């Protein structure tokens, strides 16, 4: 298995080699900044101990990686998964630095995780573990220090428990000076969450789709055929917003397989049917057919949207991709080997750190609302998201044209340059 942190460092080195000529007058500062960015500022590790329902002692390894805060507080999710590792949280915190920089929001990258299968815990045990983690982090996070959020297997309810634990710890020490709700995002609406958060990632991806279609020169949205692998939260909202705007979504899939409908699908009807029957393939109508997840990826469409798992496009199937462009809504759905094949085949790519950054952008909006104590309508959130997504895409495309690189490299170059520039301005390199 590849080491994710080593992968993130290798990516950074490749980007640095392309950016180097831009810093001919600050060679030493640039070199030192890149060296510093190869490792997180700090990684916290501990073993959390809780009393299980049967009276035994449960022990769980936990991590928090704070990568870089040159542009603002560390920001990033907390995941509960049996495969969490120190290398993984270090890599993810690095990628969060780039994701925040790409959209221009004033954050650096962070990431946390606990080695646990949460499905094996009772609700009471889950709450105890979440509170133990928040207690461990209570003196290491804060609205202007590090702002965690939900990630794999964590929810708004888990953030609510963590906020409560964090606030009670500060209260005991007499340290509350600002709204503690601003320390966590992805919270329920009733506890300072933001309107629009649920759909933000999928909606942001469709905002990117709109700009991409302009660049590709399509005259009509209806002629643009879209296939989406994955029909969870992100895939559904992407499908719904794309359909509402006039695009033809011809395929969607879940873990059990997919549907291909040449004339287009109705995402809302499919979601209702899936909730009732348990799979999208239970929703096939006349003129539609069942296809596998692998077949969804290889359909002859204009836009392919991998919105489920990582590494689904790899060296063995990349040559079979017929889509003209790919918008990565999942994290890491394309392997580095596949990237090269797709690039050689002139497939346009909008990478994950840009395509799915609508989620972290609305998390930023949540933080702003918490700090102001003033909350926005759904319409205001969507209105504020649009220019940030459009600008992020425009900057990526500009870098792509200027340096004649693919979309992934252009996005990383944009992000790394912004972080390095902030580090040089601060001095001390």
Characterise this structure:
- By secondary structure, the protein is α/β, with parallel strands linked by helices.
- The chain has 2 domains: 41-193, 3-Layer(aba) Sandwich (Rossmann fold), CATH 3.40.50; 198-355, Rossmann fold.
- Helices cover 47% and strands 17% of the residues.
- It is built from 14 helices and 12 strands.
- A 7-stranded mixed sheet has the order 9-8-7-6-10-11-12. It has a 5-stranded mixed sheet with strand order 1-2-4-3-5, with helices on both faces.
- Helix 3 links the parallel strand 3 (74-81) and strand 4 (108-115).
- Helix 6 (197-216) crosses helix 7, helix 6 runs parallel beside helix 13 (378-403) and helix 13 packs across helix 14 (407-426).
- The radius of gyration is 22 Å and the shape is globular.
- The model has no long low-confidence stretch (mean pLDDT 94).
Q: Order of strands in the sheet with the most strands?
A: 9-8-7-6-10-11-12
- How many domain regions? 2
CATH-derived topology of the largest domain? Rossmann fold
Oligomer: single chain
Strand content: 15-25%
What share of residues is helical? 40-55%
Task: Count the DSSP helices.
Answer: 14
- Overall CATH class of the largest domain: Alpha Beta
Distance between the first and last residues' Cα: 35 Å
Determine the mean pLDDT.
94
Under CATH, the homologous superfamily of the largest domain reads NAD(P)-binding Rossmann-like Domain
Give the class from helix and strand content and strand pairing: alpha/beta
N-to-C SSE series?
A: HHEEEHEHEHHEHEEHEHEEHEHHHH
Structure summary, number of beta strands: 12
- Poorly predicted runs are none
């Amino acid at each position: 298995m590849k080491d994710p942190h080593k992968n993130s460092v290798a990516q950074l080195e490749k980007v640095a080699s392309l950016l180097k000529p831009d810093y001919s007058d600050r060679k030493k500062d640039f070199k030192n900044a890149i060296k510093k960015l190869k490792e997180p500022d700090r990684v916290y590790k501990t073993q959390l101990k809780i009393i299980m329902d049967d009276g035994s002692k449960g022990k769980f390894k936990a991590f928090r990686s704070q990568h870089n805060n040159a542009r603002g507080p560390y920001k990033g999710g907390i995941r509960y998964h049996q495969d969490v590792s120190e290398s993984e949280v270090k890599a993810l915190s690095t990628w969060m630095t780039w994701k925040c920089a790409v959209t221009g929001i004033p954050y650096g990258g962070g990431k946390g995780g606990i080695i646990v299968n949460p499905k094996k815990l009772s609700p009471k045990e889950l709450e105890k573990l979440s509170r133990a983690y928040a207690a461990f982090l209570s003196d290491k996070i804060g609205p202007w220090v590090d702002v965690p959020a939900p990630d794999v297997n964590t929810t708004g309810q888990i953030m609510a428990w963590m906020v409560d634990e964090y606030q009670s710890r500060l209260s005991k020490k007499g340290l509350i000076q600002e709204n503690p709700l601003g320390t966590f995002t992805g919270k329920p609406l009733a506890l300072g969450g933001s309107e629009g958060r649920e759909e933000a990632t999928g909606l942001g991806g469709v905002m990117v789709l709109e700009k991409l279609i302009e660049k590709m020169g399509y005259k009509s949205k209806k002629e643009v055929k879209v296939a989406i692998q994955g029909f969870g939260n992100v895939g559904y909202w992407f499908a719904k917003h794309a359909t509402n705007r006039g695009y033809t979504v011809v395929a969607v899939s879940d873990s059990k397989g997919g549907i291909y409908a040449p004339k287009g699908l109705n995402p809302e009807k499919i979601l209702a049917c899936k909730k009732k029957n348990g799979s999208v393939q239970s929703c096939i109508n006349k003129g539609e057919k069942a296809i596998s997840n692998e077949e969804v990826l290889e359909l002859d469409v204009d836009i392919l949207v991998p919105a489920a798992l990582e590494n689904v496009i790899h060296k063995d199937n990349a040559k079979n991709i017929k889509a003209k462009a790919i918008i990565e809504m999942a994290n890491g759905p394309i392997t580095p080997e596949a990237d090269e094949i797709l690039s050689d085949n002139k497939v346009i790519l909008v990478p994950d750190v840009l395509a799915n950054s609508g989620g972290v952008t609305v998390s930023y909006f949540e933080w702003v609302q918490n700090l102001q104590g003033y909350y926005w309508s759904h319409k205001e959130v969507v209105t504020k998201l649009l220019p940030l997504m459009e600008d992020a895409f425009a900057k990526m495309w500009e870098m792509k044209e200027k340096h004649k690189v693919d979309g992934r490299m252009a996005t990383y170059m944009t992000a790394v340059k912004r972080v390095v520039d902030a580090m040089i301005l601060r001095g001390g390199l």
